[in-house]
Amino acid sequence: MVIGGGRMGAALVVGWLRAGMKADSVAIVEKDDSRRNELARIIPGVYLDATATASAHSVVVAVKPADAVQACDLAKRSGARRMLSIMAGIPIRSLESWTGSGLAVLRAMPNTPALVGAGVSALASGARATEQDVEWAESLLGAVGSVVRVDEACLDAVTGLSGSGPAYVFRVVEVLAEAGVRAGLPVDTSRKLARETVIGAARLLAESDEEPETLRAQVTSPGGTTEAGLAILEDHGIASAFYDAVEAASERSKKLGGGGL
Ligand SMILES: NC(=O)c1ccc[n+]([C@@H]2O[C@H](COP(=O)([O-])OP(=O)(O)OC[C@H]3O[C@@H](n4cnc5c(N)ncnc54)[C@H](OP(=O)(O)O)[C@@H]3O)[C@@H](O)[C@H]2O)c1
């Protein structure tokens, strides 16, 4: 059962169905009527309800953090024995206290490329979760991308890196396009070149066995154009800009989550 059929909840279910799960084995609890109608259209065959009336063995909570207590109460009343939360910032100990004893709790931080099956999620487990529970959560998250296991204490840093990371990359595309225009390209041409460059580089990284350092070295001839461009990025502090961005986003995640674990 999935509680919360928003963007992330729906993306997960679509991924599971693509991976071979039967639609009639999934229930989505979604309180918004118009969203339920939309879900019926985009994911036909799944059981949809406004509240958790059916019982469930396993629950995924995908509501906004502000709705966490209510969703945990629904999970508890469904009789589930394990629960995976993808809510940002809500610690496992809070989830355990809201669901009561007996429920194994796991917590993950996915990112938006999950919407196209190319996400990466970090997964942490509570004390009551068994290896089987962790494997269950890994297979659910694995249907929409890659999964890494982490200690819960790492999840704020994960949020700063891979949670916020897609936005950093989109910003790089925007800035590259602006740079192309400043260098004399028409706007549309520059936007297309910037976008396709980042998509192509990401695919090359995904499909090659090489590390990013090697791929970079392969296009950087001594005294050549790429070397000249990279030297400027370093001079302008590209490394410290990203270090500070990840740190600031991690700190913000810690604060939003109530000051850490
Ligand atoms: N989007 C991301 O990149 C991302 C990444 C990592 C983690 N997350 C986490 O994933 C969670 C979901 O994000 P999202 O973007 O998918 O949010 P969303 O689109 O707002 O989806 C949440 C849905 O759950 C519904 N809902 C809320 N309380 C409910 C309840 N008690 N019973 C049934 N349905 C309920 C909401 O309905 P109403 O609109 O009527 O309230 C809404 O349709 C968040 O906690 C977020 O922190 C998101």
General shape: elongated
Q: Write down the Rg.
A: 21 Å
**Major pleated sheet:** 8 strands, mixed
Tally of DSSP helical segments: 11
What strand line-up does the widest sheet have? Answer: 3-2-1-4-5-6-7-8
Mean pLDDT rating: 94
Helix/strand order, N-terminal first: EHEHEEHEHEEHEHHHHHH
Q: What is the first-to-last residue Cα distance?
A: 27 Å
Low-confidence stretches: none
What is the count of β-strands?
8
Bound molecules: NADP nicotinamide-adenine-dinucleotide phosphate
The proportion of residues forming helix, as a percent range, comes to: 40-55%
Quickly give the structural class.
Answer: alpha/beta
Binned strand content: 5-15%
Textual characterization of the structure:
By secondary structure, the protein is α/β, with parallel strands linked by helices. The chain has eleven helices and eight strands. The protein has helices spanning 7-18, 33-42, 68-77, 92-99, 131-142, 155-163, 165-182, 187-207, 212-218, 225-235, 238-256, and strands at 2-3, 27-29, 47-49, 58-61, 82-85, 104-109, 119-125, 145-149. It has an eight-stranded mixed β-sheet with strand order 3-2-1-4-5-6-7-8, sandwiched between helices. Strand 1 (2-3), helix 1 (7-18) and strand 2 (27-29) form a beta-alpha-beta unit. Helix 6 crosses helix 11. The protein binds NADP nicotinamide-adenine-dinucleotide phosphate. Residues 3-9, 29-32, 35, 62-65, 67, 70-71, 74, 86-88, 109-112, 163 line the site of NADP nicotinamide-adenine-dinucleotide phosphate.
